[in-house]
Predict the structure.
Amino acid sequence: MRMRVHPTFPVRTRFAPSPTGVIHLGSIRTALYNYLLAKNTGGSFILRIEDTDQKRKIKGSEENIYQSLKWCGLIPDESPMIGGPYGPYKQSERKDIYKKYAEILVDKGLAYYCGCSKDRLNDLRQSAMKLKPPTTVTYDRKCFDKPSDKSLGGIIRFKSPVTYPSITDLIHGTKNIQPQYNVDDRRYDDFVIMKSDGLPTYHFANVVDDHLMKITHVIRGEEWLSSTPKHVALYEAFGWEPPQFVHIPLLTSLSDKKLSKRDGDDGILSLRDTYLPSALINFIALFGWAPARDSGQSFDETMDLNTLIERFSLDHLTRGNAKVSKDKLGYFNKRHLQSLDDKEFTKLCEDVKSKYSLQGEVGDFLKKILPHITTLDEISNYTHLFKPIYTSDVPENCREVLLKILNDEKFGLDDMLKISSKKDVFKSLRYALTGLPKGLKVPEIVDLLGPQEIEKRINNAIHYIDNL
């Protein structure tokens, strides 16, 4: 049985994306788990933009991060947009901070300047791969003898320990992860912490920022587990207490391959026209977590953000990869559409009116439509019900059939079919009720509109025909 690891104090978590593309499902899951942990414990959720790799930065990516979080309802307590006591919250604006802490390590003899050329470093990498066994630990510490010689260049390397410290992960337990060395040709894992452009590498900035921003828990993807010994070694070099680490499993397709765009790993904002944010968050939350329940007890998986905050616990995170199926997202979307509160429904009405250029009140019709749809884009199949647009392409005998229906005064479909042929009734009714020759089946339209609206639209159609 796993020990309980969920904190009982207000934590500080962070989401630290790089602006190198749009936010996808995996990134939002990382943000969500950090957000849920912070809010469940009464703590703080921080957004930090890790933009030290300027070559990979893509225009519009930073705005995509802000908009994706906002649409999902994951509002940071501190961020580049909001500010906070531990800013700046963009790494590109923290260059002096990193330089200061890199020099501290240099002064302690735990880091050193390196002036090796790219050609020499490439030769070292290639020769290391030819060793038996090969190794990814490549540097020979040529520059270590001059640790304080800034004339060697702007690159600073960390003097890695002979043996990396073991790490503790709240899901995976204690791990002893060491690089593979070649004993006959000893190399060193002295990774770069400051680049020649004066910006830090990911590993160094990550550690410095998490410490200075007082991050207590780091929830991130499992792919970063192998880098954690480097981070812990840096914490120990500074004499700092590392945060608690939680490495969550990969997202995979149903065929157990790493999730890709082909498998449905879409940019989050591309889903706005199809799904409710509450449904998407519900869907993503269950990728590696499930709420507590008694053995054999079933539970309702449909949860809004407040319910997720209340029920979230690190104790119930899973280790295995999470398989993603969009069918489940459709299920949650249908459930959330049926349980919209007044504020959410009003927002949906406004969105529908704006998207489809509708005028007047749409709420009554929208309420009738929602039980019949799974995704938001299916509303387009019903927009002609909000307001019919008549054309001169009037079905044969339409006026006469509509008058007979009015005179019957019952407006039940069975009664309508008694007064004329089925073909004439369906064509004429479809024209009067929608203005279109095709669309939903007439019985569905009749059920959705009801007698009063049917009478109103038949009269409007007759009036239009009379004025052609």
